[in-house]
Amino acid sequence: MFFHKKRVQKVTCRRGQERAQLPEAEMLVVEIDLPDGSTIPADLYDLSIDGSGVLVPADFIEGLQTEDVLQFQLSHPMHGWSVRTPVQVIRILPHGHHQCLLGMQFINTGNLYAQLDDAMGRYFNRRKMGRVHPDENQTIDVHIQVGSDNILARIYDISREGLGVAVPYVQAIDLVPDMEIEIKFRLPNMKKSISGTVSIQQRRVIGEYGFVGMILNEQFDPYRAKIEEFIEDRKREALEFEAGFVDDEEPLQDAA
User: Fold this and answer.
1) Of the candidates 114, 126, 106, which has an alpha carbon nearest to the alpha carbon of residue 48?
2) 198 near 183, Cβ under 8 Å?
3) Which domains does the chain have, with CATH numbers?
4) Shortest CA distance to 1 belongs to which of 53, 63, 74, 77?
5) Is 179 helix (H, G, I), strand (E, B) or coil?
6) pTM to 2 decimals?
7) 100 to each of 14, 70, 71, how far by Cα in Å?
8) pLDDT in tens, 137-184
9) Residue 161 to residues 85, 183, 197, 221: CA-CA distances in angstroms?
10) In this structure, are residues 188 and 140 in contact, taking their beta carbons and an 8 Å threshold?
């Protein structure tokens, strides 16, 4: 096993059946440095150039809050590489018994890019670079119409072409890929609501929630400029937040 450097007991977290598998994901080792200085093991759930989701034992992160800043390290002992970068906690969700799904956003992408080469970069989904998360303190509700049912969901991430929304489990199980549904939402930079038909691309059920990815069709074309404006605003806010950590950044570590 590859958890020989851990300062805490080794833990194996089981992954949800609906998640997309990463190439050779079982060979990747994740370690998280918590604010109290301890290092804990985690199981990789997903990974993009924006951030990562990991599964951790719930009792290891008692007291952890959204907006806390951690250190994330991903390594591949067999191939002899590792990357280490600061992350901000954006989601903490229960996942089964005694586990949590920890959603983290990279807050110094320049640091991350500098560490990536072709061998490492294939584990990071660069297609998500245009996708941003709403401010944790500014929830964006989405009304989903399925037949006579009106479902209240929340935007998890957004790009020019689509949305990721968090839906309560009991309603998410009826939302399946290729299904077309009506949605309505309003971004903080807009006075009027956006509405139209979307096509569901994927769905992952995680604990009490389903995370549903959907594509915005041509009905949303008149609103794309405003969507892009919101995305750029969020990117700018992320850069401003990131700037506060540059001076305190640790030197890059050599690959193990």
Assistant:
1) 126
2) yes
3) 25-129 (2.40.10.220), 141-238 (2.40.10.220)
4) 77
5) coil
6) 0.53
7) 11, 16, 18
8) 788 999 999 988 899 999 988 888 888 898 998 998 889 888 999 999
9) 28, 14, 13, 10
10) yes
